[in-house]
Amino acid sequence: MTVKFLMLYLHLVAAMFWIGEMLTLMLILTPVVYRQGDTAKRAQLYHEVGMQSRPWMLGALALLVATGVGNLYFLNVPWKTLFDLGFYRTPLGRTLGWKLLGVLGILLLTVLHDVAMARLRARGGTVTRGSYRALGRWVGRLNLLLGLIVSWLGLRLMFGG
């Protein structure tokens, strides 16, 4: 197995893990948690699951970024090309540009979610407040959507843009 295929394989596994975790949270955990009736109990369950899955999700994101950089090398995209606006007028450049924007969006949304929840907990609050619950739901949905789009763009990159 060559380094190129190993890099791509690790990238795909990390993407599958990350998207799978997001789908599991939305499609399996959320319906179960919402049957719990008590808002404080639901908030506590989400907090515990979030703390348990956080290192795995952040690890998957870190692996995606690291292997993504490696995959750029194997796509023969030098660093200096990323700063050339003309590159983004090519099919490969356009696809890569959208993918990089999507990845940036995912990273920013992840930080927004983690910072908002950490600040709420630090103030002694619980995630039972409606605005924080809504923020958590929408950030999760948007992150999943961006993850699916970024995955599709990654597939396009493998076939030339």
TrEMBL record:
* Protein keywords: Membrane, Transmembrane, Transmembrane helix
Query: Could you name the domain of life of the organism this protein comes from?
Result: Bacteria
Q: Which residues cross the membrane?
A: 6-34, 55-76, 96-117, 138-159
Q: Does the keyword Transmembrane apply?
A: yes
Entry protein name: Copper resistance protein D domain-containing protein
Q: Which organism is it from?
A: Hydrogenibacillus schlegelii (Bacillus schlegelii)
Taxonomic lineage: Bacteria, Bacillati, Bacillota, Bacilli, Bacillales
